[in-house]
Amino acid sequence: MNIALLKKGDQKTFRELIKATHGDIYRLALKFTSDSNDAKDITQEVYLEAYNNIHKFREDSGIKTWLYRITVNRSLNMIKRNKTKFDSVSIDENSGEAKNIFLSSQYEADKPLENKELKFLLNDALSKIPENQRVSFLLFNHDGLTYKEIAEILNISHSAVESLIFRAKANLRKILGDYYKNNYKSAQVFKTNNVK
Amino acid sequence: MNCKEFCHIIDNGVIPEENNKFIHKHMNSCIDCRNYYLLMYHSIENANEILDNTLPDSTLASEIENFVFANSKESKTIPMWIKAVSAAAAIIFGVFIGDNTYEFKLQTNKAEENTVISQFNEQETLYMAETTEIIYRSFINESEDYEK
Fold first, then answer.
1. Spatial distance between the Cα atoms of A117 and A100, rounded to a whole number of angstroms
2. Under 8 Å between Cβ of B31 and A106
3. Pick from A11, A21, A171, B63: CA 20 to 30 A from residue A189's CA?
4. CA–CA separation, A140 vs A150, rounded Å?
5. What is the pLDDT of residues A137-166, one digit of tens each?
6. Is A143 part of the contact surface with chain B (CB cutoff 8 Å)?
7. ipTM above 0.85 for this complex
8. Which of residues 57-96 of A touch B (CB under 8 A)?
């Protein structure tokens, strides 16, 4: 990608940038918001901000890293702006769904949890961990971004990223473990009493 | 491997290579432990597969292009010739309005002056008429007195 042309405002080069990266930007926004319309809005805003502020791009990281940084900021802003909406989704839908999943699992004890069910539970658990841990975890699980790239996106040190991801995983295990113990009754009984 | 050992390994968050085979063997025979593994290990370690990862619509790229080029600072920048023409038009309009206002004010002043003059003339005429009438009456009265 010719950065010099981008900085001159060349529309053809910017179109190439959009074509090459919009899928990744959209999927990252979708991971944050879990809503395709919100993700689409964020993606459009990201490219508009990038086009208007391309002269501020210092080239000390890749253009995609820079776009990811804008995406993270935009996504967090949208979540903060629509806090009521995201909170209500988490409490009313995901938690309710979490209970339903476990209740249905009680009745179909021989059925393994499906990806759709795991997604609801994981999203709900993610909404309960601190923001910096959630952001690091989502970036780590986005197209194999490395610790170094995540550190550049978040403007923090390599070791801070490692620590945040470690703590995020530990917190998620704790929250998901609580779900399991509180809702998956047969398993709870099994775990505490019926050791094979 | 029993369920307690299985859960203990999963709770640690890391499955040692040597236990991999036993873990999978145990999961195949115990659905509860399989679900425990899926929830506590698989969902966290393979979040990329589990979280929303759908590709965008094929039209998204062109939608972004249209949005960006229609809303960019560049598209909102007004060309210099439009600015110059607008400024000239504003000056001409200002002069036109100013001229008309000045003329209107002059005409109003003139009309006011005429009104004052006409009012003055009317009062004077009335006064003269009254005076003439008084003189005429006094003359008539004097003549009648003389005849008597």
1. 10
2. no
3. A171
4. 7
5. 999 988 788 999 999 999 999 999 999 999
6. yes
7. no
8. none
